[in-house]
Write a structure and sequence with these properties.
By secondary structure, the chain is mainly α. The two termini are about 40 Å apart. About 70% of the residues lie in helices and about 0% in strands. The chain is globular and about 60 Å long. The longest helix has about 40 residues. Helix 3 packs parallel to helix 8, helix 6 runs antiparallel to helix 10 and helix 11 packs antiparallel against helix 12. The protein has a three-stranded antiparallel β-sheet. The relative contact order is 0.11.
Length: about 525
């Protein structure tokens, strides 16, 4: 069997031929095996296969991939995360240009979210079946094509269809890019590699509202979508040169029934969270839709436990570190996902800042994310995942609660400092949880774990917006926006409640053992924990 790994699918360069070593021990997989503590699928691949032409030294090839691939993934993820928030700002302008009401363009936002919910769960299977390079190329191509079509849309229906194309590409982009990083870097280098995922995930949503507001103010609204074109073309060029092609030749057939049950259930749940956050329907219909979505997910749970190769292998939750990172992350992300909803209410309605100035107040979070990149490795190596996640979750919750002190008399430098703290703690939280997910997951299960974690992260942020909306609606009640004093006081109560829930979520991470994640953080095992193990 021949598997292409290099730049060209021909025998002339980058072609590898299966050796007797892999035939005996590789179990038909396109990557070999290595000791779990330092599992590196790419180096075993090159040692077990013979390179025909091209680079003759494995170290040359892997060093080149390690140097450029994180930037490739970062560029793609930044494009996706920026687009996810930049469009929200332009909805009123697009509605005027297309001569429709802003509410009728809700499908532009909902269609994208639903595509993410449906197609993220099968992203891992797609990568195993067709290869990470091919699927990532499809994803970036679809996203770029969808952006072009959105910019050329002449009516709202064409815009919605174009967003569906974008959503399908976006659903594959983040999980497959993260999966390629997991399979390229050994666990001991995972922390540094994952920072390339964390930073665009944080900076994109922060820049989105500000950049979107500036574009619609100075340029045609179509520029919002056209800005993705040069980024997408750059990504495609980098993919062709530096993206490895990992695949599993023994991948099982797609679980179609499970995909139908889980995809429809998670899409309906995502829709329920979206309309719940906007209070567009009375409680009765929302509860009915919620019951249907939970019923579909329960049916998938029953189905997934009965077959050997489900679309989402729930038995991975038996791994403690994976269980804590995913489930604990869902609860913690209530605060992370809720803040982007509450902050504009405080800055724009409560304090009276225009949208572009409110966007500038969040910019220190981007600087904090970059600053954290230089510190996270040493912090986790010194204290370990357990201590960092417990303490950092509490500190992040306290930071949210401090926003209850922000009012008309608060100096700008105080808001900027608070924004920097929020960015630092949230970035450290993202990095710690994202790396812990793969700490004890075998590389053969990496694609499945990646799909589950990506789906959970997307749903957690939706839960965060819905939860923040519920809190704000509860405390604001019938308070008019013109009564800024009462409005700000109600928002302060929302920040206190959201911060308290975030602090309570720290108890989830007490389930971790002191040495959990040490293979990722390169932290020396503590003697007491080693003896207990």
């Amino acid at each position: 069997m021949l598997i292409a790994v290099g730049n060209s699918p021909t025998m002339e360069r980058g072609r590898i031929v299966r050796s007797e070593f892999v035939r005996q021990g590789g179990r038909g997989c396109a990557y070999g095996r290595a000791p779990k503590a330092e599992h590196h699928p790419y180096l075993p691949l090159l040692s077990a296969w013979q390179i025909v032409g091209g680079m003759s030294q494995p170290n040359d090839l892997t060093s080149q991939i390690k140097r450029y691939m994180p930037w490739l993934v970062a560029v793609s993820l930044f494009m996706e995360n920026l687009d996810a928030t930049i469009v929200n700002t332009a909805v009123p302008t697009m509605a005027r240009a297309l001569e429709v009401t802003p509410l009728s363009l809700k499908g532009v936002l909902t269609s994208y979210t639903l595509c993410l919910a449906v197609f993220i769960p099968i992203s891992g299977w797609m990568a195993d079946r067709y290869g990470t390079r091919r699927v990532f190329t499809w994803a970036v191509s679809l996203f770029t094509l969808g952006s072009l079509l959105c910019g050329l849309a002449v009516n709202s229906h064409m815009l919605v269809v174009s967003r569906v194309v974008q959503g399908i590409g976006g659903a594959m982009m983040t999980p497959v890019g993260r999966l390629a990083l997991v399979r390229t870097f050994p666990r001991s280098e995972m922390l540094a590699a994952m920072n390339y995922v964390v930073i665009p995930a944080l900076i994109g949503p922060l820049l989105g509202p500000f950049v979107g507001g500036m574009i619609v103010h100075w340029l045609p609204w179509r520029t919002i979508f056209f800005v993705n074109l040069p980024i997408g073309l750059l990504g495609l060029w980098l993919i062709k040169r530096h993206m490895p092609d990992y695949r599993d030749a023994a991948v099982a057939p797609l679980d179609r029934r499970g995909f139908l049950l889980f995809g429809s259930g998670i899409a309906l749940l995502s829709y329920v969270l979206e309309i719940f956050g906007e209070h567009r329907l009375p409680p009765g219909p929302i509860l009915v839709l919620l019951a249907i979505s939970l019923g579909l997910l329960a049916a998938y749970y029953w189905h997934g436990r009965r077959i050997p190769n489900p679309v989402m292998r729930l038995t991975l939750f038996d791994v403690r570190t994976f269980n804590v990172a995913v489930l604990g992350g869902i609860i913690t992300r209530l605060g992370i996902g809720g803040m982007p909803f509450l902050l504009p209410l405080l800055y724009q309605i409560g304090l009276g800042f225009p949208a572009w100035q409110a966007g500038l107040l969040t910019m220190p979070q981007a600087a904090a994310a970059i600053f954290m990149k230089a510190m996270s490795k040493s912090i986790l190596a010194r204290f370990g995942h357990r201590q960092v996640l417990i303490l950092n979750t509490v500190l992040f919750g306290c930071t949210i609660m401090v926003f209850s002190l922000v009012g008309p008399g608060t100096p700008i430098w105080g808001i900027l400092l608070l924004s920097f703290m929020q960015g630092f703690f949230s970035a450290l939280q993202f990095t710690s949880m994202n790396t812990l997910v793969y700490a004890d997951i075998d590389d053969r299960d990496a694609s499945m774990a990646n799909s589950i974690a990506s789906t959970a992260q997307m749903m957690a942020l939706s839960f965060g917006v819905a939860f923040a909306s519920l809190l704000a609606g509860w405390f604001i009640g019938r308070t008019p926006q013109t009564d800024t004093v009462a409005f700000i006081r109600a928002l302060h109560h929302s920040y206190l409640a959201l911060g308290a829930v975030t602090i309570l979520s720290s108890f989830v991470f007490w389930r971790l053992q002191p040495n959990d994640g040490n293979n990722v953080s390169n932290r020396a095992a503590t003697p007491e924990a080693a003896e207990a193990a």
